[in-house]
Request: fold
Amino acid sequence: MTLDLEAGAREGGRARAVRDRVAHDERGRRHRERTALWLGTVGLGVAILVFWQFGLEHLVNPRYVSDPVTIAARIVELAAEGTIFTHVSVTLGEAGMGFVIGATVGFLSAFALSQTRSGYEVFEPFLIGFYSIPKIALAPLFILWFGLGTLPKVIMAALLVYFIVFVNTATGIREVQPGLLQVCRVFGASRRDLLLKVTLPAAAPALVASVRITFTRAIEGALLSEFVASTQGLGYLVSRASRAFDIATVFAGIVIIAAVVMTANTLLRLLQNRLTPWHRGQVHG
Amino acid sequence: MNSTSSAVSFEQVYKAFVPRGRDSEPVLALREVTFDARPGEFISLVGPSGCGKSTCLNLLAGLTAPSEGVVSHHGAPVRGVNTSVGYITQDDNLLPWRSLRGNVELSLELRGVPRQERRARAQEFIELVGLAGFEDHYPGELSGGMRKRAGIIRTLVYDSDVVLMDEPFGPLDAQTRVILQAELLKLWQRSRPTVLFVTHDLVEAIALSDRILVFTSNPGTIKREYAVDIPRPRDPFRIHETPGFAQLYEALWEDIRAEIRTDIGTQAGTQPGSQEGGRTKIGEAAS
Reply:
């Protein structure tokens, strides 16, 4: 700021006028660009909705695709009944619990295994093998093993979260610059200092970033299990409605799921920027 | 020379290491290296890449042990990590999650210096190198020259009597380099630590040092040493105008040119201690 002021004082009136004009033009250009983008986005959204409402019925049987107005009315109805809040809270509860368990266990196990070089390498093939199993294939087994209640959903959500957090934390820890550790050792750092002041913060961006993206996975895991067998939750709502050919409710459920996930993502992104302001982490998974 | 009165002494030091990777033959990085540094002496180590200059610093820091011979600090052989030296690496190695102030305070914090004193000492050094006003910036928000200054003061702030510097100005542009050389001399005059300074830049070596050790290419050993008789305080901006500069530069360059020439034939394969992604790995036997 002070530098700008000094620069301003040094230059004459003409130079200042040039700077002001360029700044003004640039502001105008940016504003027009933003407006154009915004109009484009809104226009495309409206076009899609209008086509769905009035055009789609000429292409396919409207029984199967419903329409935006009916869906909106259905959402309002579900909200008025109050059942939707039960479904949302059940799914969020399962996802939340699975998320906390998966992220905690993922972080702790990655941390423990990364303490020794060979520890990680012994486990790695098993982890990769297990990671490559499509988790949906396990959903029916979980229902068999853990029943119809909350437990199989929580476990599925935790599992989806676990691997991503594990891999990202382990990578973060293993990729700490060796030079950083050595300089700190010469500075007099103990093993504990290195862990708390170098390794952990160095791995934090990867961890925080992976935690952010995995909340979506936790919701997916809960929904997936609900589809297979359940008595409540958003997945139950959608799958029951689809079996009853109640397409409007299916779409209403999907819209609500999307809204929940987007809200959660926004909140977590804000949290991430607060926790690791120096870094926008790369996420693997 | 009586080794108990020297700040640093290398006696008949050899260092061999096995590079990572399959079927690799052990490489001799240092052969029969012997030298002493008086307290307060500024010594530059120059020579072709991969000649074991950095290995000398790592030995003194205790990050690696000699395969033979003795490396001593104030007459006592170095065993394990030597926390009484200061080490400034080519990479600034700042902690990206700590502000400039936090980084400068780190070494003091690890040494258990109380908070108030830490703050005051860090502030003093931050002001000395003109970084006042940037205390709360993260390293990612600082320029290359500013990061370099931060890397230097965070090591000098704990007043070790021996400071190891491994091509600290390597990646900087020519002007910033000279500015930082002048600042380094100013900081050095304050407490006069012994400095071992690795560099490829012969002008830099002349501008800063009392003595210059020329290393042969691998295995590294001391080929010749030169005393730099230019009086202090020196001005790195005008060092090339100093009488005697040209002759010294010519002599140094002649020595090194011979090494590079013999090196070309042997360097075709893998070079020990090569740099990966532009980062020198300290602790390994690097250049």
